[in-house]
Amino acid sequence: MRVTGTGHASMRIDTTAGSILCDPWVNPAYFASWFPFPDNSLLDWESLGQVDYLYVSHLHRDHFDAKHLRDFVSKDATVLLPEFPTSEMEDEFRALGFTKFLKAPNEQVVELPGGLKIMIQALTSPTDGPIGDSSLWVEHEGVRLLNQNDARPTDLSVFAELGHVHAHLLQFSGAIWYPMVYELPQAAKTAFGKQKRDRQFDRTWRYIDDLKASHVFPIAGPPCFLDDALWQFNDIHGDEGNIFPDQSVFLSEYAKVGGTNGIVLLPGSVAEVTTEGASTTHPVPVQEFFADKVAHLEEMRERKRPIIEAEKASWRHPEVDVLGEMKRRIEPLLDESIYLAKGVGGPVRFDLVGYDGESVESIVVDFPGKEVRPYADEKVRYRFRMERSLIEHLLFIDEVDWVNSLFLSCRFSAARIGQYNEFVYAFFKCLSEERLQYAEGWYDEHERSTDAEDITLGDWVVQRRCPHLKADLTRFGIVDGDQLTCQLHGWRFDLPSGRCLTSVGHKVRAHRVDAETPAPAGEAVI
To answer: Are 271 and 263 in contact (CB under 8 A)?
Structure first.
């Protein structure tokens, strides 16, 4: 099985039974904030795009690059579709000219012509991508590969049960706006960033240990930031709190925990994977490339500057009545929302900075009041500040997912009082009736479900499944004193009270091992 690195989470898998192109991303994403690094725009995409099968894990724009898919990927390719709850991905592909689809039943092995086998695991909570993320397992002539990319399954046993995996490709770096955009003292940002960076690596080590593949390939990050306003987010400044470590850092950190089977794929690298081992060739020596990282980034910044400036010039739409359009689009969804609106539990404020860089219009999305209105000097727990043109553009293009556009751009600042609230971001991913209804139904089913099984962790008996997204705490749970941490997403719980310390809601059921009578079960709250 030949694996060609094509940048970020993208790769081309070649076998004698067919070829699969995965997650090709080349054009800048999220308001021209994210670019693939190392740069993959100079690869021979005319040839790379001539494949038998195309797999895109989810609709995040650093995986689903519509322009590149339209221009460079053969429309004769059969699209391998995860079993997602909505038809959005298929609809997007059809709009680009694709007509051949294989809808893979979730977690079921499908045998393709020539003996090529695939299985797709779809994750379908509202917090997985925009209504879905997925992983792809491939087998041919006894060689098995798992492309986990960004996905965070609760365990990898469904893949391990199919036989030993020879190549495990997974995310290790950050892909979020936290903590960089928060209005905090730099020392606090660094501390929170270091904590997040450590959690990212801990989660990666756990996945690697679970699967025990022959070879591990760090993929799906980090992006690079070429706009001058975002340049500081690149991990080139000696900041121990930077959440975007690169592949060379992965190899160094992996070695500290005993990892010796890591393989880096640069764009153009080729790994020949067999049941006996893997041999890899690179366009340039990997160590030398990352030693010159700053020079590579500076060269990219100058080369991509016209692209960024052209994108910026397209965002202003002064003809858009922002307040009126937000009311028209968001208020009907507020009226239909039960779980998400209660979960947010208060007004969310958007401070829009005018074209002059000084004037500010403040708009509130009032979840309890079910309305969008001007800010009225009330206390808010969540506040976002950004250029008005960004919201104008979202409204102009009728964007249904402000998380997978505005927030991932990092082109804003944020402040909050109290805990992280996942419902805020879940709602702004679901600015369409189809998405909102799915998310409401998912939370309804999730919050009503019970988890009767208990396990023992240290001195505590706790419910086996994390209240957040049902991760198995026998695998991801760590107890330190009176606190439980679920390493899958880093959520923490106070065990004596059951209270979630990371977000509102999601109370855990727990009692001490030596307690005569278990504490009452904590019902999940929103």
So the answer is: yes
| Residue 302 to residue 68: CA distance in whole angstroms | 22
What are the tens digits of pLDDT across the range 397-443?
999 999 999 999 999 999 999 888 999 999 999 999 889 888 888 88
The residues, any chain, with a CB within 8 Å of residue 419's CB and separated by 6 or more, are 500, 501, 502, 503, 504
3-state secondary structure of 256: helix
Are 77 and 53 in contact, with CB atoms under 8 Å apart? yes
- Reference 390, options 310, 309, 317; nearest CA is 317
466's tokens: 């994390």
8 Å CB contact between 216 and 259:
yes
Contacts of 302 (CB under 8 A, 6+ apart): none
Kindly give, in sequence order, each residue whose CB lies less than 8 Å from that of residue 483, ignoring residues fewer than 6 positions away: 492, 493, 494, 495, 501
Q: Over the stretch 302-342, which tens digit does the pLDDT of each residue have?
A: 999 999 999 999 999 999 999 999 999 999 999 999 999 99
Secondary structure letter of residue 112 according to DSSP: P
d(CA 291, CA 287): 6
Report the run of H or E that residue 137 belongs to, with start and end: strand 133-140
As a whole number of angstroms, the distance between CA 482 and CA 444 comes to: 30
Beta pairing, strands 460-463 & 510-512: antiparallel
Q: Where are the beta strands (DSSP E) in 240-370?
A: 270-273, 278-281, 347-353, 360-366
Matching residue, tokens 């997912």:
401
Q: Look up tokens 């052209």; give the residue.
A: 310
Evaluate whether 213 touches 166 at the Cβ level (below 8 Å): yes
Q: Which residue has the tokens 């996945």?
A: 207
